[in-house]
Amino acid sequence: MDRTDSVSSDHEPVVTSNFQGRLLFVRNISGFWLLGLCNNFAYVVMLSAAHDILKQQGMPNTTSLMPTASFHQPEGGNHSNSSRYDCNPVSTAAVLLADILPTLLIKVAAPFFIHKCPYGFRVLLCVATATASFLVVAFSSTVWMSILGVIFASVSSGLGELSFLSLTVFFNRTVVGGWGSGTGGAGLAGSLLYSTLTQAGLSPQTTLMIMLVVPAVMAISYFFVLEFPPSFPQWWCREGVEGLPRDSSSEERRPLLAEDPAKAERNEEEERGDPGDLNCREKLVILRGLLKFIIPLAIVYFAEYFINQGLLELLFFPGYYLSHAEQYRWYQFSYQIGVFVSRSSIFCLKFRKVWIFSVLQCVNAGLLSVAVYYQFIPSAGVVFGIVAYEGLLGGAAYVNIFYFISKETGNREREFAMAAASVGDSFGIALSGLTAIPLHNYFCSL
């Protein structure tokens, strides 16, 4: 009897510990999934609404940004030019630039000083700017006021992405997969909700007001769902790398910077406890080592956003049961399906040769450019399939690149590396926006 009690007593703490460990794992994965969802949500909604925002430039008597009438334009609604395409006066890439340039500026500059701003304050700023984006766009009376709202969404998304990617270093590496899946879910949820609610008859203003719940969920996810380490610097500036989890799988890591024994030994010493912050020179050296990840990421995102914001609005099928604006919105949704599936795949599949995604995405961009010019695609349904495949490639590139950066960098450099590498996708997107505008003007002049 005593022995049985003893055995039960001995094992009970283990069971409890395992249960608590699993609960902690689920909480943190769920928290990062929700943060990824909320962080990219406003950004995605603004891109899904891009065609509708710019449609108003051809409607001089509008008193609101996107009245319900704009969602029920007759096919071929813009007849302001003699082009064979149904063109807006301005490419949707203009909205893309407003949605990405502030993000790009933040990602280029912030990694060098953002560690001086505590994480708690960063998150509050993200919540505030995301809320402002929905409110400004919803109540806008001009296109330029709407663009201001898009810029708020960009600031929130850019600051949030580099902050939350840096935040992953304080947790188990698997949270990178949760973050990636959540960002994919943002694309799916944002484009689906915007398309279905507006097509169901809700005004865009009402739709955007409903979406104000998203910044609130971001705050709840960060402050109440995540379980932070005891030493986590929530409201104060972190000094050094104290509190970062040690990497127990160093034998699997291919160091980002250590290419000779001397560098490898120096990195090992740093991981054992050098608490100093990285100086500017060290950060530049890390950036050079990150180029093998940043360049493929930039190429893949250049090609896919060149498609999304430069070509998709020109792939209009007049005989299809969806109007031009509806086709554009559902193209965006098909793309986001692919992104969500591939960004969630890191739990099952991992690809180290990320350059392959860049090559395949460039092939997609070339194919659809030719398709726009010669108009040989028979139906919008074919475009839906191609765009979903495009999303698969882009999402797989993103989540695999950040997974391997997390795996191949040392404790001291990882927080900066995760933030700095995020500039790759934004740089590619901004370049695609600049390229898509003259392309739009060329096709619309035909």
Automatic annotation (TrEMBL):
<comment type="similarity">
    <text>Belongs to the battenin family.</text>
</comment>
<dbReference type="GO" id="GO:0005765">
    <property type="term" value="C:lysosomal membrane"/>
</dbReference>
<keyword id="KW-0812">Transmembrane</keyword>
<feature type="transmembrane region" description="Helical">
    <location>
        <begin position="176"/>
        <end position="194"/>
    </location>
</feature>
<dbReference type="Pfam" id="PF02487">
    <property type="entry name" value="CLN3"/>
</dbReference>
<feature type="transmembrane region" description="Helical">
    <location>
        <begin position="32"/>
        <end position="50"/>
    </location>
</feature>
<keyword id="KW-1133">Transmembrane helix</keyword>
<keyword id="KW-0813">Transport</keyword>
<dbReference type="GO" id="GO:0012505">
    <property type="term" value="C:endomembrane system"/>
</dbReference>
<feature type="transmembrane region" description="Helical">
    <location>
        <begin position="206"/>
        <end position="225"/>
    </location>
</feature>
<feature type="transmembrane region" description="Helical">
    <location>
        <begin position="120"/>
        <end position="140"/>
    </location>
</feature>
<dbReference type="GO" id="GO:0007040">
    <property type="term" value="P:lysosome organization"/>
</dbReference>
<feature type="transmembrane region" description="Helical">
    <location>
        <begin position="147"/>
        <end position="170"/>
    </location>
</feature>
<feature type="compositionally biased region" description="Basic and acidic residues">
    <location>
        <begin position="243"/>
        <end position="266"/>
    </location>
</feature>
<feature type="transmembrane region" description="Helical">
    <location>
        <begin position="354"/>
        <end position="376"/>
    </location>
</feature>
<dbReference type="InterPro" id="IPR036259">
    <property type="entry name" value="MFS_trans_sf"/>
</dbReference>
<feature type="transmembrane region" description="Helical">
    <location>
        <begin position="285"/>
        <end position="307"/>
    </location>
</feature>
<feature type="transmembrane region" description="Helical">
    <location>
        <begin position="93"/>
        <end position="114"/>
    </location>
</feature>
<dbReference type="GO" id="GO:0051453">
    <property type="term" value="P:regulation of intracellular pH"/>
</dbReference>
<dbReference type="InterPro" id="IPR018460">
    <property type="entry name" value="Battenin_disease_Cln3_subgr"/>
</dbReference>
<protein>
    <recommendedName>
        <fullName>Battenin</fullName>
    </recommendedName>
</protein>
<keyword id="KW-0472">Membrane</keyword>
<feature type="transmembrane region" description="Helical">
    <location>
        <begin position="416"/>
        <end position="437"/>
    </location>
</feature>
<feature type="transmembrane region" description="Helical">
    <location>
        <begin position="382"/>
        <end position="404"/>
    </location>
</feature>
<keyword id="KW-0458">Lysosome</keyword>
<dbReference type="InterPro" id="IPR003492">
    <property type="entry name" value="Battenin_disease_Cln3"/>
</dbReference>
<feature type="region of interest" description="Disordered">
    <location>
        <begin position="243"/>
        <end position="275"/>
    </location>
</feature>
